[in-house]
Amino acid sequence: MDSARVTVGSLNAGIQGGKPLKNTFKNQIKDELLLNNFNKNDILCLQEIDRDFQDFENYGNLKNKTVIEEFEAKSGTRLHIVSFKHKDVYFVVINCHIPQKKSQNSASENFFILERLVSKLIEKNIPFLIAGDINHNRTQIKEKLGNEISFANDKDIETTTGRNSIDNIMYSSNSKSLGFKVLKNATTSSEEAKINHYAIRSTFKLTKGTKLYKGDIQRLYDLCYNQWNHPTQHINIVEEKSRKKQNGKQDIIKIEIPIPERCSKVKSKFKKKNNKKWSAKKFHRKYFANVECCYATLLKFFRSETNNSNCKTALCNYLK
């Protein structure tokens, strides 16, 4: 089978004032969003609610689904990632709660890791769905994650009592949205709890992609997480030039390495102390000494532009 239909719902169930939900209201949400034939979801992504109620494996309607892998992101990142097999289609669901724009440090980390994870999934042809309280509008999300994702809520339908559209279900290009709904009645509490988000749901047709095994998504996530914590792993080449010396001897290669934006404060202090001898190369050697992390990024260019058989040594010497 080359495709599968999946219905995904999302709800930030946090009550204003930080009060916990009572069991009766938890059961009400479960009944409305998982068992009600009009609102039924195969997979329900919840934010700001007890971990046991959020469990994908225990609360789902896919009769022949298989949970390949499930894990929560490391502390500081609000991502819960699960890989599924439904029929013959393998896919990934990412449940996220991105902090508000004013919490820029935390939001930047979440978007950084999410953007790289999305890029890896696209590269490997793995269908994915991202659901949750994003706290950013569509334009801001696209600026962070790129244009390879689509929005089930492509009309900016209001998803909160404050008339915002910050809850979304996003999907990859090898998937197709078959409809989007805001379920306002599903979060009406018999206990008069004030939830300021509405539940949302969308049905998708997922196209068969790459097969997934346990550990595949964890490794991809770990790679993205490490890139955030070790900036040398995501150095980009901003300028590549080669020119011959006047005497016709070996080419000289110039490569400028940009400083990651998140290191700007350290960079500023370093420049003040080393104003006369400032260079990006010295900065990277001092603060990101692991040459092995970044040499692979540039090695291909060195091989194509030099006749030096020991390219790795040449590059390491350049970065010292």
UniProtKB/TrEMBL annotation:
Q: Know the name of this protein? A: Endonuclease/exonuclease/phosphatase domain-containing protein
- Look up and give the organism this protein is from: Dictyostelium discoideum (Social amoeba)
Q: Which InterPro entries match?
A: Endo/exonu/phosph_ase_sf (IPR036691)
What SUPFAM superfamilies does the annotation carry? DNase I-like (SSF56219)
Q: Which domain of life is it from?
A: Eukaryota
